[in-house]
Amino acid sequence: MSKLLLSLLADECGFIVSAELVLVATILVIGLVVGMSEIQHAVNAELNDVADAIGSLNQSYFTSGFSARKPYGGVKSHVAGSSFSDHEDDCDNNQCDISCDEPEREGYKW
Fold first, then answer.
1. How far is CA 79 from the centre of its chain?
2. Using one digit for the tens of pLDDT, what is the confidence trace for 16-32?
3. What is the C-alpha to C-alpha distance for residues 71 and 68, in angstroms, rounded to an integer?
4. Torsion of CA 41, 46, 47, 51, to 10 degrees
5. Per the structure, how many domains does the chain have?
6. Residue 52 domain-assigned (yes or no)
7. Cα-based torsion angle of the residue sequence 98, 99, 100, 105 in order, rounded to the nearest 10 degrees
8. pLDDT > 70? residue 44
9. Residue 89 in domain
10. pTM score above 0.90
11. CA pair distance 83, 72, nearest whole angstrom
12. What residues have CB less than 8 Å from 3, skipping those under 6 apart?
């Protein structure tokens, strides 16, 4: 045998792709996919909680008006009050449906 072939056979450095390495890599990839899916579900659940908290805030307000009179009668200044009453929106507290319409059966195919 040639000296190069003997040197190649005796070499123990490098990376050998074996069935065990492929199996370990496959298990790692499957674990990563499952882990990322669980992270996605956890983030969606937390963002849903944040949306519910924001939707449950009462944003109503009321400001009273004021007026000032002249010393000898008459109105010097007048500002009317203002108010806003917050009503529940469609999507507050998980009241939204993702789909708009009920599913319908398809017609016959001729």
1. 44
2. 667 778 888 899 999 99
3. 9
4. 130
5. 1
6. yes
7. -170
8. yes
9. no
10. no
11. 32
12. none
